[in-house]
Every structure is written in structure tokens, then in C-alpha cells.
Amino acid sequence: MAVFQAAPGTRDILDPQSARWRALIDVFAQVAGSAGFGEIRTPLFEDLGVFLRLGESSDVVTKQMYDFEDKGGRRITLRPEFTAGMIRAFVQHNPALPWKAWAEGSVFRYEKPQKGRYRQFNQVDVEVLGTADPMIDVEVIALGWQFYRAIGLTNVRLVINSLGDAQCRPVYLAALTEYFTAHLGELSEEGRATLALNPLRVLDSKRDQDVAVVVNAPTMLDSLSEEARAHFDAVRAGLTALDIPFEIDTRLVRGLDYYRYTLFEFVADSLDSAQNAIGGGGRYDGLVAELGGDDVPGVGFGLGVDRILMACDAEGVFDAPDRSADVFVVDTTGGLEALKLCSQLQSAGVRATRAYDNRSMKSQMKAADRSGARLALLVGSNELADGVVTMRPMRGHSIGDPVGETNAVQRAVAREQILIEVEKFLQ
Ligand code: HAM
After folding, report:
1. One pLDDT digit (tens) per residue for the chain, 427 residues
2. Theoretical Cys-Cys bridge with 198: which of 57, 180, 418, 420, CB 3.0 to 4.6 Å?
3. H helix or E strand, kind and range, residue 169
């Protein structure tokens, strides 16, 4: 028989990692909720056209889309990111401005799988549509920063840049093209190909040959229009006012083509440089109009959940929450009492578990020990006849006696009192 494995670039996330995952999303929901963001859940797949707007020089568009024709002959793609789908939803539903939305879930990119680089990975994302105020850029960046802090990460750097606006960007692109063209022979073959598509992306090249040319390339910051400069200065002032440290990297361009003005990335220095970008985003004025909406400005970020958890491992923070059972029910009368007790306790929110298959008392006690439960409830034939349950504290735990001394003595409790006594014990 064929034995299947998860497809390349995909992973199964099992408990306790999955519990940690859920806890991480809960923290994000809380941080984003406090900042006035509401959750949006968009479809996993969209019309291909929605994502073609990410830019024709972007690898995400040219090489990495999971696109296919569905049975109705539609060109469909699995979402490679959240932004374009959220804008499609915004244009479709026309919510009040400014619209602040967050999302989380899987995105798909056909990349070469490696550590920290998957074909199905998860992002948490925020987008704000409807204001060009640089203060919202700051708020968005601050939200990401706060989230990393909330989960305990400290070794994270914020890097920012500006990509200018409709006025100064073409001027800069021309200067950049002129510079790279003058140094064409020194660029790598890939660098030359990228230049033909988008000279900005050459700045992003990691190839030594290109890096040597890029070092002396003109920077966007030198060519910013008055308006773009004022926007960038306001973002810097806002970050400074919030005591959020940042670095300016004039070579930061990122992999998607839609950015204007502010651009930023969060870098985890605890990870290898190939996967140390744990989040990034920026402003994308113009994208909403390209997707058929009004000319509404927007800014947002996407943070990579898989990589964030890797960074948490590297920093030894954000452990899996303790989800071991509170109570283990040992029943040697056939199992029905354990069934009823567990059901009663679970309904009251107590984490209760038990053994199966009618095992011996000794074997069930061993299982109780392994479960990490603080308390065992024992039901044998004597207990059943007397209408009681024996409460036995597990190793390292005790039933406090009225004098306040701790002891490990077990005691019998009337069956109808058991929930109250268990809850008292667990307090
Ligand atoms: P992005 O930089 O393509 O931006 O992705 C955001 C984050 O997703 C990255 O910083 C990284 O942590 C994670 N990531 C990207 N590719 C992979 C992969 N193959 N495996 C694991 N993690 C990965 C966007 O997606 C934009 N939509 C962000 C944005 C929102 N800009 C404005 N609004």
C-alpha cells in the first residue's frame, strides 16, 4: 500500500505546537483588537486577476502562484498573500473609512522548500484603507512591534525605507536604470534580467556580483519629493515618539511591487539570514484603484507565523501552554462511572481524562501519573456501593487540610459533592 507523506513544503502541526500556534493567534487577535481592527476571513482562493496586480516583476506573480483552471473554466489561484484579497473584499463591500481589518491563515507560494520557507505557510496580517496620514503607518508598525513584545521576542529589528510617490519614483527609477545600465557588464545575468523588469528589485539582489554594484547606486531617499520626504519624516518622528528603535536601509525594496512611500521589515537576528524576515509591509496607495475601487490609500503588514515561532524557539520564549489534564478518573467498576464523571467535569470546564479498555487499578494509576493531572478520582466497587468518590492528590500536589498543613492524604467525597470539591481543590 502506498504510504503518503505531506507534500513538499507543507507540514502537519501537531499538539503541543498547534496549541502554541493557537495561543499566538489569540495574542495577535487581542493586540489587533485593542488597536481597533476587526477580523476578516477571506476565501483561500480568488480569481487569478486579483493577484496579478502584485506586480509583474514580483517572483510571487511570475513563479510562485498556485493557479489552475477550475471545473467551471475559471482561472483561480490559491492566495499567495492577504493584501490583494482583502482589497478585493473592501471594494466589493464598501465599508466605512478608515477600514481597519486583520486576518490570519494559510497562504501558498510555490517556492523551493527549505527551513523557514514553505509552500503553505501562515501569516497574520493587518490592512488599513482610507487614510494617507503617516501616523497610521506608525500605528501599523507599532502594532507589529507590540505583538512581538507581547509574545516575548526581544531580538527583533525594525528596518524602514521610503519608495517615494508618483512624482519622484519615476525620476528615481530613471536615475537607477541609468546607473545600472552604465554598470551592466558588472551585474549578474539574473541581475540584468531583473533590471529589465524592475530596476528597484536589483537593489534586493543577494548575489555578490550585484551587491558590489548596488553599494554605489543612487538611493530613493536622495530623490524624494517634498511630499514624500515629509511623509517619511513624519513616520520617523512617530516611531521616535513611541520609543520604537528603527534603522533606515535605502536598499530595502521587498518582493512585491505595489509599495509606495513607507516600506518596513521586521528582522529576527536570532535566525539565519535566509529566513530572518519575520514580517514586513508598507503603504500601497494606488493598489485599490488598480483593483477597481476608488483611489483609496492603504497600508498594512504580513507577519510570518512559522518564522515567528522559530524565532520564539531561538529566544526560548512563548512555550506551549500547559494543557495537561487537571483530573484523571480511575474507574475499576467497568468504565461507566468514569464516563459520567468526566462528562460532568468537562461540562463544568475542568480538564478531565481517563483510561480505557478496563485496565487494572495499577495500570490506570500509572496512566494518571503520566497524564500530569493534579488530582485522581478513584471509583472502585466500595466507592460505588457507598455513593462516594475517592479524591487522591497526585505526586507533588496535596489536599490542604483545615489546619492549613499540606498532606497527600486521600479522602472520600459524596458523589453529589464531587464537582464542588474538585473545583475547590483546583483553585
Ligand atoms: P511578504 O514579505 O511577502 O509580504 O510576506 C510577509 C512575511 O511572510 C515574511 O516577512 C515572512 O515572515 C513570511 N513568509 C514569506 N514567504 C514565506 C515562506 N515561503 N515560508 C514561510 N514564511 C514566509 C506580504 O505578504 C505582504 N502581503 C505584506 C503586506 C501586507 N504588505 C502590506 N500589507
Report:
1. 889 999 999 999 999 999 999 999 999 999 999 999 999 999 999 999 999 877 777 788 878 999 999 999 999 999 999 999 999 999 999 999 999 999 999 999 999 999 999 999 999 999 999 999 999 999 999 999 999 999 999 999 999 999 999 889 889 989 999 999 999 999 999 999 989 888 888 998 889 999 999 999 999 998 999 999 999 999 999 999 999 999 999 989 887 778 999 999 999 999 999 999 999 999 999 899 999 999 999 999 999 999 999 999 999 999 998 888 999 999 999 999 999 999 999 999 999 999 999 999 999 999 999 999 999 999 999 999 999 999 999 977 666 544 444 445 899 999 999 999 999 999 9
2. 57
3. helix 168-182
249 in Cβ contact with 221 (< 8 Å): no
CB atoms within 10 A of CB 29: 15
Spacing, Cα 348 to ligand 1 middle (Å): 41
Q: Is the CB of 127 under 6 A from ligand 1?
A: yes
Instruction: Fill in the amino acid letter for 254.
Output: R
Separation of CA 73 and ligand 1 centre (Å)? 30
Q: Is the CB of 102 under 6 A from ligand 1?
A: no
With a 6 A CB cut-off, is 80 part of the ligand 1 pocket? no
Contact 266, 144 (CB under 8 A): yes
The three-state (H, E, C) secondary structure of 129-189, written as one string = ECCCCHHHHHHHHHHHHHHHHHCCCCCEEEEEEECCCCCHHHHHHHHHHHHHHHCHHHCCH
> What is the C-alpha to C-alpha distance for residues 210 and 214, in angstroms, rounded to an integer?
6
CA of 304 to the centre of ligand 1 (A): 6
Quick one: how far is CA 239 from the chain centroid? Answer: 23
Q: Are strands 406-407 and 375-379 parallel, antiparallel or unpaired?
A: unpaired
Nearest CA to ligand 1 atom 31: 281
Q: Is 85 in the pocket of ligand 1 (CB under 6 A)?
A: no
**Ligand 1 centroid to residue 24 C-alpha, Å:** 17
Ligand 1 in contact with 300 (CB < 6 A)? yes
Nearest-CA residue for atom 22 of ligand 1: 304
Ligand 1 pocket member 55 (CB < 6 A) = no
Give the distance (Å) from ligand 1 centre to CA of residue 81.
7
Using a cut of 0.85, tell me whether the model's pTM lies above it: yes
